[in-house]
Each structure stands twice: as C-alpha cells, then as structure tokens.
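Researcher: I'd like a candidate sequence for this fold, 753 residues long. If you have to choose between options at a position, lean toward the conservative one.
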C-alpha cells in the first residue's frame, strides 16, 4: 500500500533553467503590444527565484480591478488577449426570458499564459481522434495499484499537453452510494481511503513532467451521487457522514496528491448550493482540509452572488466557461454597495494565479498547435496493462479458465464481443468508455483477439440477437464465452443494474446449452447475476478502453493472470441496496412526497442520506446482508493462504505482519487487505479498510507481508479516527482482520488507553 509519502498540500515552485529566457512572444495569448514592449524575464511575476505566492502577489499588485476580475471566469482567465465577452444564460432562466449582455474588459497583464481546460475521464475529451482511450477509472480502482494510477496520470498529462490542454478536470471522486448512478464508472470505488489514495497518485502523475506542465482538478465536490436532478437537488447528509464518507477522499487526495483545483458540484448539500456553501468551500475544504488551491464551478453550476454570504465570500474562486452568475459589473456593484470587498476578489484571484504558477503554467508556454495523433505504442501498451490489472475474476468453478490453446472449440457470443453491430449500434466500441460520449473510441474487439489467440478454425461467433441461434452455437463448442453489458453515462442514472440487451436471457440460454460457460461482463459498476449458479466462470472487465479485446483474450487464455479486486460491493438483488425501499434516499422526493417532479415545480429534489455511514460494504456488514460478491473480492488462477497475523501499535504507528503463501500452481498477484474495527464507543457501523499490499508470488513461495502505517498515515488518513465535531481517536480495543477481501481470514487486536 503506497501511503508513506510526503504530504503535498503545497506544490513546490518549478525550477526550469532551460526555460528562464523565453521571450514574451512565445507566451501564446500575450497581447501583441505588450509582447513587443515587455521583457518577461524582468516582470516580477516571472521571477523564478521567487515563490509562487510571491509571484502571484506581484502580478496582482500590477493589475487593475478589471484585470483581477478576469481570473474569476474561465473564458477571460484563460484567454488573456480576449477583451469582448458575452454572458451565458443561467440554467433556471427560461431561454425566452434571457437577454445576453456583451461587454469589454482590458487585456490581461503581460506574460500571462493561455490555458485550456479539458474533461478527461479516461481520455482527453473534445480533442477528436488520435488520443488513447484508457479503461474507465472503476477499472483503475479495481487494480488497487497506486503506482499504476500514477502511470495513468502521467500518460493522461502527456496526451493533454500534446493536445494543447494544460488543466485536466479530473480525476473524479464519489462514494458509490447507489450503483445506479450514471457516472459510477468515472469514479474510484466506495471506500474513501482507497479512492483518495488512488486519486492522489493519479494527480501526481498528471503533474509529474515539469517540461509539460498540466494541472489536476478534483471533481465533483461533494455528495454528487446521482444524475437525476443533479442540477436541482439537495443531498442532505449529517456532519459526521459528510466528513467520514464524502469529503475524506478529497482530503486524502489533496494531502497526498498534486491537486491544483477542486470543482464543486451541481447539487446542493443541506440546502446550500455546493458552489456557494461556506461550510463546504471555506470551513471544510480550505480550513479543515487546508486546501490552498482554487475552486471552480461545474459547467453552469448554480451559485449565488447575492446570497448570504455571496458565493465569492463563501469560498468560490472561478466560474466555469462563460460569465453566467458572476459578471464584472455585478461584482463591482456589490463592492460599491459594501456587500463584497475588493479583498474578496483579490483572494480568489490570488488562489488561482498562485496555483497556476506552482503548476508551471506560467513558465512553459502552451504548444502552438495540437498534435494530430498522440497515441503511441507505449500508451496503447499501458491501456492494455490497465485493462488486465483492473479486471476481476469473480468466479471460476472447475478450472474452466484459463482456456487452453489446444484445438478446443470456443463459442464467442454477444454483440459487444465484435465490431459488427448486431442490433442498433451496440458493438465492442459501444462499451469502450461509455461514460464519455464525446470521446471517439474504436475498440480492438474481443472476438478478433480471441480468434487470433486460439487454434485456427476453433472459434465460432453468434451475436446473441437470436437466442436459439446463440444456444446452438454454444452447444456445438467445448466452451462458450458470452459477453454481457450495460451502458451508463453522464446525464441519466440507470433504471436498474441488470444487463442490457436481453443479456440475462442470453446468458441463461447459453448456460443451458453448454455446461462450460464463461461470462465476460462489461459494466460500469455492480451488476445483478440471476444466472450465477448456472455458469462456471465470471470475469468483470468493466469499460476496458480501446484495448479491451487483447486484454480480455490475454486474461481468458492465462497470458495475464487476473489480479483485480472489487472496489464496489455487488448485491444479490436491488432490494439489498441501502437506498432500496426508501424513495426519500433515492431518487429523492418533493414536498408532496412524490418522486416525480410535480408540474411547474422548480424546487430542489430532497435526497435524504438516511443510511448515514452505512455506505457500500459498511451497509452489508451492519445490516447482516450477504452480498453476491463482497468489497475486495477477486480470484486468481492460483490460490493464496494467510497465517500468523501479528499487529503492533506504538508511537510510530501500526504494524501489521502476516505470512502469505501461493498454494497453487501458477505465479499470481494477491492484494492482501487489512481492516480495522474501532471500539464500540466510536459507534461505527462496521470495520473499515486500514491498508493493503499487492504481492506477487511464484507457486509454493511464501513471504511475510509487513504493512506499516506511520503515525502520519494514521493522522492524515484518519484510519483510526471518527468525526465527533472533530477527528477523534477513541480509547479501547481495535480489532484488525486480514484476508483477500472484506471477508477476512485472520484476526488480532490492540488497545489504546
């Protein structure tokens, strides 16, 4: 478990000796007149011997109020030469009642960079073709591999830079409250510690190359757990749950990562817009967590300039895209009225400028034109590795997997196995990275890769549109590999977590026809499996990106050994979800108790987080409900045994040691997990993840896993703490368990007095 890293709350200034003498003309976006007259090596905000804070203060000291206000909106902040702007329509204002206003601002001070933001769920959005489409982040989290997360971040940062983007709006963090959420695949699982550490590693990768500086922005802060009425709902959550479940991963990502900004969410939290909440932005993010970067709205996210307090004073720094709720005229009117201060503008502008300088955006000009194709053999290989390590072998009865390379007949069945659409537009590319429809993806199809890997003439295919034909194809083979999928994405939640496209009937028909049926799942999160007892093997590959075919074939034939572990609990039925049977919890209700918005009603939908801390695996443990597959579950083509657990606690932290043995016949990688149950006085619903370590062992080999959690780890990650108005460590007995999933095998204890 990679958590013993220096805290990175404040980024170090970059020293780029080779770039110190760049002429002003190379800074794209510097006004022509200013470029001709200004030596950028001489202006104080370009003095690389000063700290980012000193440089930011120097720039603002040389700025007029209008130039400071420019930083408070993405369009004007990121295009320093642009002087004419037009306001955008607020979401709640009908189009026929909105009149845009066009106004001018002076050009920005000289030697100010052009900046371009990009969404980047797992590929650079809006850049067209020529980018690598990596697996979705749900797959990344299932690798439990922070080094791999950093490697993905490095690749994303490089591709962003070569496509002229120097701020990435990502990674995203949510807590998996309900798997029907349309953006589940974008996020990093249901555990706040795992999610936070993976996001931290990813962000460190994005900002790792000072010669290609790219800044990372976490999103969507916070309790943004559904797409239904995401622009007009209130997530109502108690203070303890808010800290322990929803803001904790942000805190960890900021402490251990390289984060320049945080994007606040569309929704309200406890009846205040996330982008105007003093509790969320000022108290929790900036004071409790200690975040010194900048905050920005989501695209059109509501925030009140005239609320009490105004969003600018509540801790919001920038509005995304065009001026919408903030305009320079309105802000100056409020300053004149005494509602806002120039100091409020200065504070917001300072946080933005300082973060951009610290990230290196002022020191390395954005490239003059984007590369047409930035995908390389190395990035394609990384996409395949990510898909392999993120895939989870859920079941493997009778050793059906791995497939042999001898002349066994293999039936491949299902529309997403091939690149020829069977019905509608569903094919292998449809679930490549479905959460990002504006990212073109041409997937290497599983059917092609399986056919290339198998013995010649042994693979047959049925698209699954005809169940009788699919069953006949399966019956004629020695083993049947059937692909099941569901689609999800931004703007809508799923109605359920069952397979799409009559998938359950297809799997059942194939399983009835062939006793050696393998199911490959392509979903963005948990999925129901009414056929689970009738199939031999189940492999979850998620939305596996452009290399889904080669990665799936490598896993099926054992060229790569599955090592992924679930970061979401898989329920047996939707009735087992913590929100099930509680419409006030999901999708939320209106004043009349209806889950459907009444005609003419514009009030926020009220979503009650009544399950409290019982999110994900905590819910199943507290309610004594057995999931289909628990959090942390994942099989291999070998087996592992745990023994001899010893736990020690002292002033230096907690040390967890145990023996791990590969008891099978193949080399494999096990993610050994440790959990801790707090004393009863803490009133926690269940044990929680304490730490983990990925271990690779040859057959018959053993090793002592030594998981050391320093005092800084315990404090920074709140591993033994609970929220009681402040982070508190309870006295009493702590029970540590160790194993290959939440269903752990070994137990030891220590006492804090």
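Model: Candidate sequence:
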């Amino acid at each position: 478990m990679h958590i013993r890293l220096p805290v990175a709350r404040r980024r170090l200034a970059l020293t780029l000796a080779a770039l110190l003498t760049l002429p002003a003309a190379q800074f794209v976006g510097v006004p022509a007149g200013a470029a001709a007259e200004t030596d950028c090596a001489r202006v104080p905000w370009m003095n690389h011997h000063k700290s980012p804070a000193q440089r930011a203060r120097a720039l603002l000291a040389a700025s007029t109020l209008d130039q400071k206000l420019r930083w408070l909106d993405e369009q004007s902040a990121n295009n320093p030469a642009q002087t004419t702007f037009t306001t955008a329509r607020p979401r709640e204002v009908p189009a026929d009642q909105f009149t845009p206003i066009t106004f001018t601002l002076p050009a920005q001070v000289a030697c100010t960079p052009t900046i371009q933001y990009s969404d980047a769920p797992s590929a650079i959005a809006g850049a067209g073709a020529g980018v690598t489409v990596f697996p979705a982040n749900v797959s990344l989290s299932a690798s439990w591999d922070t080094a791999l997360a950093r490697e993905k971040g490095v690749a994303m940062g490089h591709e962003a830079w070569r496509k002229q983007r120097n701020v990435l709006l990502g990674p995203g963090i949510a807590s998996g409250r309900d798997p029907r959420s349309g953006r589940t695949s974008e996020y990093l699982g249901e555990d706040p510690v795992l999610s936070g550490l993976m996001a931290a590693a990813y962000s460190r990768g994005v900002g790792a190359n000072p010669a290609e500086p790219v800044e990372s922005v976490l999103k969507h802060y916070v309790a943004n757990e559904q797409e239904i009425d995401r622009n007009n709902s209130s997530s109502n959550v108690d203070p303890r749950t808010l800290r322990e479940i929803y803001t904790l991963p942000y805190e960890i990502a900021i402490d251990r990562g390289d984060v320049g900004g945080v994007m606040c969410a569309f929704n309200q939290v406890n009846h205040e817009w996330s982008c105007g909440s003093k509790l969320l932005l000022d108290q929790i993010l900036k004071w409790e967590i200690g975040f010194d970067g900048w905050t920005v709205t989501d695209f059109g996210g509501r925030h009140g300039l005239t609320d009490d307090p105004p969003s600018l004073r509540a801790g919001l720094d920038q509005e995304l895209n065009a001026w919408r709720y903030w305009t320079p005229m309105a802000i100056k009117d409020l300053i004149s009225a005494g509602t806002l201060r120039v100091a409020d503008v200065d504070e917001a502008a300072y946080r933005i400028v300082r973060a951009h300088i610290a990230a290196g955006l002022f020191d390395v000009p954005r490239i003059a034109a984007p590369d047409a194709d930035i995908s390389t053999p190395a990035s394609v290989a990384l996409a395949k590795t990510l898909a392999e390590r993120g895939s989870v072998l859920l079941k493997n009865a009778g050793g059906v997997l791995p497939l042999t390379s001898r002349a066994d007949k293999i039936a491949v069945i299902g529309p997403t196995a091939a690149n020829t659409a069977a019905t509608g537009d569903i094919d292998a590319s449809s679930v490549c990275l479905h959460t990002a429809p504006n990212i073109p993806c041409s997937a290497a199809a599983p059917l092609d890769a399986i056919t290339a890997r198998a013995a010649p003439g042994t693979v047959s295919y049925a698209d699954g549109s005809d169940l009788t034909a699919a069953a006949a194809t399966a019956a004629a083979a020695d083993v049947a590999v059937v692909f099941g999928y569901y689609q999800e994405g931004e703007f809508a939640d799923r109605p359920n977590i069952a397979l799409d496209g009559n998938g359950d009937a297809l799997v059942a028909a194939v399983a009835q026809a062939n006793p050696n049926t393998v199911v490959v799942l392509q979903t963005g999160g948990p999925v129901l499996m009414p056929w689970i007892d009738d199939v031999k093997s189940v492999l979850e590959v998620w939305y596996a990106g452009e290399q889904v075919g080669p990665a799936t074939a490598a896993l099926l034939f054992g060229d790569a050994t599955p090592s992924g572990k679930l970061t979401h609990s898989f329920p047996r039925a939707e009735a087992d979800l913590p929100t099930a049977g509680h419409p006030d919890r999901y999708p939320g209700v209106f004043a009349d108790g209806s889950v459907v918005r009444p005609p003419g009603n514009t009030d926020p939908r009220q979503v009650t987080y009544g399950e409290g801390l019982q999110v994900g695996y905590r819910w199943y443990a507290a309610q004594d409900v057995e999931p289909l597959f628990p959090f942390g579950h994942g099989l291999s083509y070998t087996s592992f045994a745990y023994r001899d657990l010893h736990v020690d606690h002292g002033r230096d932290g907690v040390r967890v040691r145990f023996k791990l043995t590969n008891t099978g016949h193949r080399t494999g990688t096990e993610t050994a997990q440790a959990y801790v149950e707090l004393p009863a006085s803490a009133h926690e619903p269940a044990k929680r993840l304490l730490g983990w370590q990925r271990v690779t062992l040859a057959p018959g080999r053993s090793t002592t896993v030594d998981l050391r959690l320093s005092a800084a780890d315990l404090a920074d990650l709140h591993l033994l703490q609970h929220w009681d108005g402040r982070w508190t460590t309870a006295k009493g007995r702590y029970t540590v368990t160790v194993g290959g999933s939440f269903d752990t095998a070994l137990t030891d204890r220590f006492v804090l007095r």
